[in-house]
Amino acid sequence: MLDRRRYYRSAYAGITETTWTAARKDEGLRGEYQLTRELERIAGHKRFLCNCYVPKEDGTTSEIDVLMITQAGIFVFEMKNYSGWIFGSQDDYQWTQVFPNKRKERFYNPLKQNATHVLTLQRYLQGFGPIPYYPIVVFGRQCTLKKVTVSPESVVLPLDSVGRVVQTLGYPVLTEYQVDMVWSQLAPLTQVSPEIKNAHIQRVSRSR
């Protein structure tokens, strides 16, 4: 159940202008909201961005679900608000989602997906100099990470562990002013035209 009053007081509603009705009906939007709710509880100066379309060298875009910019660096989240059991390993091209009725769905390895996001973001922000990046894959509360095998350097988390884990990563290397400057550079990328969004959706659909 998505509490209407709590939703409209959240950072997610403020930065995305997504309505409560839309978030309630869309699993992806609801997962992004739940993720930012967990991240809001972390202490310190931070700025959020959601659905950020970062331009790539080939003229296409890389859509990042949730970004959190802090004095420790940039946290790049790939949010999967899935149900069922999740199976996958570091080097698999695809991971597997298994439903209670035994039906299976394949989806692109979210670690590889997020690695592309980070690389694109690093290129776009190269003028800012060295910034630590923390790619993190998050799965929602309706699924179970049944057999997920990744390297120690990769971070794959259930939603309820996000706040506890993230606040242990890194240490302050940016000033509050630098955090705000990075945010201001990326913020326009969340306000792209419908044409750019549709082109991204079509390209992703063709690659599946």
- Cα distance, first to last residue? 31 Å
Name the structural class: alpha/beta
Mean pLDDT: 92
Largest sheet: 5 strands, mixed
Shape: globular
How many domain regions? Answer: 1
Low-confidence stretches: none
User: Which CATH architecture would you pick?
Assistant: 3-Layer(aba) Sandwich
Order of helices and strands: HHHHEEEEEEHEEEHHH
Binned strand content: 25-35%
The CATH topology name reads: Trna Endonuclease, Chain: A, domain 1
Radius of gyration: 17 Å
Estimated helix fraction: 25-40%
CATH top level class name:
Alpha Beta
Please work out how many helical segments DSSP would assign. Answer: 8
Structure description:
The chain is of the alpha/beta class. It is built from 8 helices and 9 strands. The longest helix has 15 residues, at 110-124. The radius of gyration is 17 Å and the shape is globular. The two termini are 31 Å apart. The relative contact order is 0.17.
Gist of the model:
The protein has 8 helices and 9 strands. With 208 residues, the protein is of the alpha/beta class.
Give descriptors for this structure:
208 residues; alpha/beta; Trna Endonuclease, Chain: A, domain 1; five-stranded mixed beta sheet; four-stranded mixed beta sheet; 9 strands; 30% strand
Map the helices and strands.
Elements: H1 4-8, H2 11-16, H3 20-25, H4 27-40, E1 46-55, E2 61-70, E3 73-80, E4 84-89, E5 94-98, E6 104-108, H5 110-124, E7 133-139, E8 143-149, E9 155-158, H6 162-166, H7 176-186, H8 194-207
Parallel strand pairs: 3-7, 4-8, 7-9
Antiparallel strand pairs: 1-2, 2-3, 4-5, 5-6
